[in-house]
Write a structure and sequence with these properties.
With 233 residues, the protein is of the alpha/beta class. Helices cover 28% and strands 22% of the residues. Bound molecules: S-adenosylmethionine (SAM). S-adenosylmethionine binds next to helix 3 and strand 5.
């Protein structure tokens, strides 16, 4: 078990970095939209393609997306890179600070694609289960959810370093109960939920359709116009 108080932020090589106090083996996590991992994702876009397809992104169309579980902002960045205007909501103070730092540096990037994507990203420190989406501006076309799930909290060789750190940091966090239903009532076009391939449906709601990736899947819930979910469902 661990809590946010076991972690601290420090500046390392110009990046705001999250470390676990007294446990350097866990490594250090930053938000760097210029880093090799993001470049890799842009060059070999297998997973991002699934994310973009799941979100209904089309060339020349600028969707308004709320990423209600922003984390390290990697998915949000891919959506912004593809032309979406993305509002990121993150409830962890520490992760919000990392995202803010990452966005500031991305705005100064030498890579115009990174600068352009950053210009389409906004960040709010908020709990998505309690904030009123209507107060955040125009109705979103898409709401994207990638909540932590218990299976991810187990240590596994497959779990990437950053995600393992997030699991440790957010171990005590309450689940985002009711977030899917709320999103279904707020998104103009669709809600996209990222899940492990073998996990059950979020809030036990069957999606309109699914897209499978190598280790995860996207459950897509169409909300327009006739399939919009009512409060009684
Ligand atoms: C699996 S991570 C998301 C990873 C993200 N998709 C990425 O690409 O980096 C889940 C994140 O959702 C955040 N989160 C969970 N419930 C939330 C809520 N109700 N409101 C805001 N953020 C939430 C957690 O703090 C965590 O940072």
């Amino acid at each position: 078990m661990s809590a946010e108080s076991d972690f601290q932020l420090c500046k390392k090589d110009g990046l705001l970095t999250l470390i676990r106090v007294g446990d350097p083996s866990l490594g250090a996590v930053s938000v760097d939209f210029d880093d090799k991992t993001m470049a890799w994702r842009q060059r070999y876009p297998q997973q991002p393609e699934a994310l973009l397809k799941a979100s209904g992104v089309r060339a020349g169309q600028s969707l308004r997306v709320i990423d209600a579980t922003a984390g390290l902002g990697q998915d949000a960045f891919m959506l912004a890179h593809a032309g979406c205007n993305v509002l990121m909501l993150e409830r962890s103070l520490l992760l919000h600070a990392l995202l803010e730092d990452g966005l500031q540096r991305a705005a100064q990037s030498e890579d115009v694609r990174v600068r352009n994507a950053a210009a389409r990203m906004q960040l709010v420190l908020a709990d998505s289960t309690s904030i009123d989406f209507a107060t955040l501006g125009d109705t979103p076309d898409v709401i994207y959810l990638d909540p932590m799930f218990p299976e991810r909290r187990k240590k596994s060789a497959k779990v990437k370093k950053n995600m393992f750190m997030l699991q440790q940091l957010l171990d005590d966090e309450p689940p985002a109960d009711g977030l899917l239903l709320k999103a279904l009532q707020s998104a103009q076009k669709r809600v996209v939920v990222k899940r492990p391939r073998i996990a059950g449906f979020l809030e036990e709601r069957k999606p309109s359709f699914q897209l499978l990736g190598s280790s995860s899947r996207f459950d897509i819930y169409m909300t327009q116009p006739t399939s919009r979910v009512s409060t009684s469902s």
